[in-house]
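[User] I wish I could look at a protein chain and see how it folds. I have put the entry right below:
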Amino acid sequence: MKPPGFVGKNFPDHICRLKKALYGLKQVPHAWYTELWVLLLSLGFVNSTVDASLCIHHNPGVKLCLLVYFDDIIVTGSSPVEVSTLATRFSLKDLGCLNYSLGVKVTPSTVGIFLSQRKYITDLLHKSGMADTKPTSTPFSATYKLLKDYGDLLPSPTKYRALVGSLQYLSLNRPYMSLSTNKLAQFMQNPIMAHWTALKKVLRYLAGSCDKGVFISTTAPLYLHHGYLFYLSSTPISWSSRKQRFVTRYSTEA
């Protein structure tokens, strides 16, 4: 549709033809994704079957990995030749070695890489008005039970829902945060004051543990083992949590 003020008198029913996708249009992500992956596939990259945003290039003696999040691209590998080809097709800016991406701080060292979310947590605490709160040593009490209808409803549940939603991203580097986040997320529809108090305890724990994260070692042997979590060497790389699909009748069945 033509914008107001640009409707021609002689051709009132004509529309605009879009020659180049711009930011702000809902077609942009799809257009960008299609254009980028067509080029990558033509260069010999293969889309990962595990992660749709990961593209891998294999050649004798050469391996490249591209991780794409809209217009943020993380590149690692043994040859920069194919990467320079992207610059001939797209306007790219090389930001140097990776140190921060999507709320995750990347700290490299001679023995590995440390991933943390200090800035994300700090921003979350300022957003909740708890930047100067007193830290606590645990995020959630195993004996404390949250009830659905036992207390006064929050006057405005929007803030509660937004903060609990923000906590989900923290499980990226802290698998143990999934438990408290899952508990709090069960009461998104009608949160009460007790739920808000439990949420503030989680935020107080984060205030005192901003620097915790996941360390990926370059020296440990790369063997895979798993239980409730999958580890590559000593680094947790995948995990999940879910409720039981049925109600157990006794503890052995559980």
